[in-house]
Amino acid sequence: MEPQIKRWKGSACDTDSWVAYPVLSDDQSQDVELIEAFAAPIVDKKETSRLIRELNSLYPLNGLQHIKRVRACKGKGSPHPLEVLVCLVSDAPDVKDVSIGSLLPSDGVRHDGLGEPFVVKVPARPPLTRPQFELASKHWPTSFHEDKQVTVALRGELFSPPQKATMHLYMMSAFTAAEAGKEMGMEAVGAVVVNPATQRIIAVGHDCRGDHPLHHAVMVCIDLVAQSQGGGCYSFDRYPACRFTSSDTDTFKSGEASSQPYICTGYDLYVTREPCVMCAMALVHSRIGRVFYGTASADGALGTKFKIHSQKDLNHRFEVYKGVLSKQCEDLKGLESHNRKQSLED
Amino acid sequence: MGTQGGSEAAAAESFYPSDEDREKWMANAFDMARDALENGEVPVGCLMVYNDEVVGKGRNEVNETKNATRHAEMVALDQLLDWCRHSNLDVRSVCEQTALYVTVEPCIMCAAALRLLNIPVVVYGCRNERFGGCGSVLEVSSANLPQTGTTFKCVSGHRAEEAVEMLKTFYKQENPNGD
Ligand SMILES: [Zn+2]
Ligand SMILES: [Zn+2]
Ligand SMILES: [Zn+2]
Hints:
A: 346 residues, Cytidine Deaminase, domain 2, Alpha-Beta Plaits, seven-stranded mixed beta sheet, four-stranded antiparallel beta sheet, 32% helix, B: alpha/beta, five-stranded mixed beta sheet, 7 helices, 5 strands
């Protein structure tokens, strides 16, 4: 691998031209949902710990452990230093005239040190990403258990320059296969399956749907991987750019190959455009390790229309990154629509 | 169903299996499933019927091919394509008049494949809670996916308990400890 990587350095296809971003689940990428709560100023700071204790036992804010009970009001020229959450608006549905007296029965919480309540909005769910955390914190102080990898990935900095060079190489193989397929009248889509542990390419394939409407590049690659392990059910001999490396030389898996029903376990897929629903679910069934794609597609199922890789209820999930060699992969799509237009005109 | 184009909707409307057809072909699919179960295979029976003729039949071939996409439906679709080739018939016009009869709801992948081939009707037995693409996990059958063929109609629940029983028996055999 090393000599090949060096050859790419400083070439026209430099790795600075693209950034790989993670395709996160809906939970991780959705807007911050807010709910209304009553807060009140703490006018006498000495009462703070007693107020927190008594409020926690009267209104425990169940399911909102990510929210801090008290916030500081510094630097706003505020007459009081702290504000405390009294309860959710939904905790006091029958209270008509909102006042500290109507919210707090005098036997539960002594009002000493509390000012009159007002409505605030607080985040309904714990933030999962740094952007969600930053948005949530604008409304009310929120705690955050940071997944550092996600934070770095969202900045587009998860992969080091040498890693990007390798990814670049793999996607170039997929790109070249896409071009070869297009030469033979297929849609310009290419894919590569890699074993990241050995850095070996297991299979390279391109779209073959001229022969068979379901032979999308990903489906072709999955069968080629099966062939590399002594299985498979199609012949792609007609297509020199569709090929595989036999797994007897791929020492990583050879011992377990016969007992391993999930042929893509631990493997990465590089594909020039986002897979469709069929291909995305085929990757779930094959237990793919990670998927990298160049550019989104209209009915894509790994980010655009669905996020099958993070679908609740499915028994296998995997990481997806988009944007690898994005410019070149986008250009492939351009070639394609041009082809289609031509064939309509003919 | 609002996502269907006018002509496609009309074609699907005119093509709908009768109660009698459903009874007959599902009986056939259940025989296949029972047969598979007795041979220690995944008990799913699946056939594609065009013009009162079986043009594709499938059973799960994942283990022998080491290809995890070889579900019964995918095998049956391959046979249908072969049949078209050998009969010199246009794939699309055959598919638009073909119904799939299957004992278990097609998975997400197979549902998308059925769309891509413009199959208008799927008759199935029980739900597929783990992978179902006709509503159980995702509703691929009716989703707005203009680049992914055409939507299809589902007729579900035919001998559902029986289909579930067969699956349960199979997974118990596979994994007697239940873990
Ligand atoms: Zn596809
Ligand atoms: Zn054939
Ligand atoms: Zn399936």
